[in-house]
Protein 1
Amino acid sequence: MVDFRVDTVQPQRAAVVKAEVPMAELRTVFDRGFHAVMQAVAAQGFQVVGPPFGFYPRMPRDTVAVVVGFPVSADVTADGDVEPFELPGGRAVLATHVGSYEALGATYEELMSWAESENLDLAECMWESYLSDPGAEPDPSTWRTDICWPLA
């Protein structure tokens, strides 16, 4: 069981790559996007100030719209596929998922049920911050992913 809470999050500037792809191509977007953002941020002399994230502007349908990137220390200038972005601020449901990325769906189902029981209206967008590096932590049962789902 995951612990859920409502708190206020601050808006955060970021550098991102946006895509809309079939779910099967999502990993490729993350790999390509994170690499491109890191290159652009380094070239512009800024700092990454938080973990990588995947922002979902809407629930997946036949395809998934995703914005992948990192929080950064200053506004980036658009560079190729990399562009500035802002993670929204405001009240949100927060949780930490422990386990594989494939098991995130169960945590989202729990979150939606919990929000309904608390009479909370969830916004259409949500995001995940990836606190674990699968390359450094090969055991997916230990991976930690923060979920932030703004309230409508």
Protein 2
Amino acid sequence: MDVQRGQWSSRMGFIFAAAGSAIGLGNIWRFPYVVGENGGAAFVLLYVVFVVVIGLPYMFAELALGRSVQRNPVGSIEAIVPGSWWKWVGFLGVLTGVGILSFYGVVAGWTVGYIFKMAMGNFTDFTSFIANPWPVLGLFALFIFITASIVYGGVEGGIERWSKILMPVLLVLLLGLIIYANTLDGASRGLTFYLKPDFSKINGSIALQALGQAFFSLSLGMGLMITYGSYLSKEENIITSGIYIGLFDTAIAIMAGLIIFPALFAMGESPTAGPALVFVVLPKLFANMPGGVLIGVLFFILLSIAALTSTISLLEVPVAYLVDEFKFPRKKIVWPAALFTFIIGIPSALSQGAVDFFTNLGWLPRALSAPDVLSHMSFLWGTFSLAFGALMLSIFVGWVWGTDKASNEIVQGSPFFIKTKFIWAFMIRYFIPVVIFILLLNIFGLF
């Protein structure tokens, strides 16, 4: 293996890095508001079921594919079926990583800005904040710079080292905020909403929303786990590592809800506030809390750390592709890749009121996306491309590479898997592609 690629030095380093890639704004920003809009505890239960039944078996497939030839998404597919069109599925994964990072970094920049807003006691004015071009662009550039600096350090010295630091810090901050939120008067009503299922609220739409949240929160469908799997040794246990990743990811999402819903109900706010929940509703809550300035600062530090563990992995996907396929030295290609991502993210940064053209682009139907560029990018790369990429990769693993070869790769380091490989083969060949296909149809409002 090319020494430039690097390798994880320990299982825990890999698990922290891969879990960090899955844990991000989707867990702490998106998960609570989707739960709030979809009836609370019944949605949470469905989400957990889908993580176990759909997310983990598919994750094993991506990790095995990457480790089998120790290449990026494009290189892995090219090594298995040289010269075929399937390599474009891998290339779609690389493009998806860049596309998601280009708008994700903008939102991540907002979280850093809110650390300072909370510190100054400025709990309002989200709309004017994101419409001010220079602070937003500056914060976006800062976040991409920090991300690139860590990826520059490589797999062991950069990604693994910082993931080992950032993940425990994230957990400590979450635990502290959970304890505080649940000491507020009225917090018990929030816990009831969040943890006591009302099964009468479950319908087909909510089930599909839960499936989508489970799938996308695990960073699947864009080749990221193929890339991280390519840094694994053959002795690594893919099954137990994947379970740990899913466990960390799901736990962080559940813990975020244990902060937000007790606080919301304690302050008499509605759980159905939607995407504005974190940046509009929660600062109002902090303003009315004893010690709210400190709590607000801690919360947005937590959100920034969660975002950073994801942006690191998003940048690693194109960097690994360029190192593998074009033999560029990592330290020379990281900065051009980061700069390119920043440039294509500028329209998203300016689409929240700063520039009217980007704010009201409206190229996609309203049913699919709001008119601004950031929402367009979120739909194209963070929803459609992920789902389509996952559908194609599951077909590739199940029918082109073959479940026998994939199973043999997983069995290395996971010998007990041989007893259940037939169940996994059925899941990856039939069940998972059908479910993802239904999810794709639902994107276009067919259900």
